[in-house]
Amino acid sequence: MTKIISGNELAKKIRSQISQNVQTRIEQGKQTTLAVILVGQDPASHVYVTNKVKACQECGINSILEKYEANITQEQLLKRIQDLNEDKNVHGILVQLPLPKHIDSHAVIEAISPYKDVDGFHIANAGALMTGNPIFKPCTPYACMKMLESINYEIKGAYAVIVGASNIVGKPMALLLLQQGATVTICNSKTKDLAAHTQMADIVIMAVGRPNMLKAEHIKQGAVIIDVGINRLENGKLCGDADFKDLQDKAAFITPVPGGVGPMTITMLLQNTLEAASYLDKINYNT
Ligand code: NDP
Question: Among the four residues 16, 27, 29, 205, which has the most C-beta atoms within 10 Å?
Fold first, then answer.
């Protein structure tokens, strides 16, 4: 029987711990604050940001939501980030992607202080992840690692195949698994005979954005499937990149969509914000 790794349940446990830590900070007279910047009218971005702000509220983390019209200039956005970097009452800064085409996303991400980069996208954090010691791990791969940890999976020596090689999911995911002793393959859209790779994997991480592409015939018996993909079907329902029904009884563990990696990603954002606040306290930044 395939077991489900519930992101909702795991998120609830971790968020309860985060709430306690935030509460302890409040009792010490310290706030924990995340600034969220949203540019334009992309409906999916509005939903993601609303969920993040709501999750902050539930854990006692203050959120400052700044919404800007799509025609904001890059200069104006960079100036606002600089102000937030210097604001000692702000611990984490998140700029919701994608940004409008006239804005260089890289320039915007690089403008965020690496100490407040709770998404873990800044080049300093990405580079530090390569050598093993980032200030912040990117939230989605961090979430996937927590989900593997929750089932006490022995990552050391396991063969992990990651399908999808983006900077925010696939590549950092590979590094985190490698650091834990996995043997890792990253596949992309040019990979020849994708199934030949996934069929050998103990762990398959799906991060493509193609509904139900991973079928039972593509995995070996007893594999663990972590499904990062979020796809909206024509009937309005959400599904992952892994065919949840087809994989039943073949996979040992699987994460559902919705209710899997999604809520855990937001949870790791809260965790990173809490860590940012503690870190900035320590270096006496937030006096
Ligand atoms: P990107 O579009 O940035 O990257 C997709 C990757 O998939 C690319 O590396 C691409 O290859 C690869 N790919 C595309 N087609 C194939 C194929 N047929 N076979 C193998 N690889 C393929 O997406 P993201 O990484 O940003 O997101 C991936 C999915 O995860 C999306 O559904 C997104 O919505 C979801 N997501 C979910 C999150 C969560 O919290 N649960 C957070 C972030 C993303 P190439 O490099 O060659 O183009």
Answer: 205
